[in-house]
């Protein structure tokens, strides 16, 4: 006799709407992987005088297998699961904008420019005539987001919008974007390459299809590492003998 204490590497294969594999992600640092195959008891109670309340028949019916999966690795592909979204590549080329008309909002409010990731060198603000330079002390720029505003108390501060022209260079941006909140659920395959630390024996888990959704909000300002919990049903696929498989192999 021995106990079960698992360590293991988990891999997730997100499926398309038509069940096509998109490739395995992992190994993932999974902090919880719980599967539950509940059952429901249906009883026929006696209503007779002599046996009232006794069970005449009892049938136990299987219920859908459920899964709960938690992990604290958060690359874009996994964060997209928590945000119920899809990923796409960001490939913004660099370029230049010359003497573009802008209207600086009143009250030192920010104006969002068409581009982000601005180069600090070379950004120039002109009066509406396009030739008179505005002193850099009269405006503030958020170069990362591509935003500009008049400096509070500065020469361009006004109770009304201020017309101007701007020239700047924006740098290329490469990365990954999550189009969040576009899905109602996520379908995936799950594989575990594990080891029972109590016996040293290798263990393997295969879940052919789980249909899951996040159980909580993504707290982007959490003081701890962001963790994602997904819960849902394990689907019995056509041609499969069981909803999932767990193997303990000889060491």
Helix-strand layout with pairing:
Elements: E1 6-15, E2 21-28, E3 30-36, E4 39-45, E5 55-62, E6 66-71, H1 76-82, E7 86-92, E8 95-104, E9 111-112, E10 124-127, E11 139-142, E12 147-150, E13 162-170, E14 173-179, E15 186-196, E16 202-214, E17 228-234, E18 245-248
Antiparallel strand pairs: 1-2, 1-15, 3-6, 4-5, 6-17, 7-14, 8-13, 9-12, 10-13, 11-12, 15-16, 16-17, 16-18
3D structure, described in words:
The strands form 5 sheets. Strands 1, 2, 3, 6, 15, 16, 17 and 18 form an 8-stranded antiparallel beta sheet that branches. A 3-stranded antiparallel beta sheet has the order 8-13-10, with no helix packed on it. Strands 9-12-11 form a 3-stranded antiparallel beta sheet, with no helix packed on it. It has one helix at residues 76-82; strands spanning 6-15, 21-28, 30-36, 39-45, 55-62, 66-71, 86-92, 95-104, 111-112, 124-127, 139-142, 147-150, 162-170, 173-179, 186-196, 202-214, 228-234, 245-248. With 251 residues, the protein is mostly beta strands. The protein folds into 2 domains: 6-88 and 178-248, Pnp Oxidase, Chain A; 94-171, no CATH class. It has 1 helix and 18 strands.
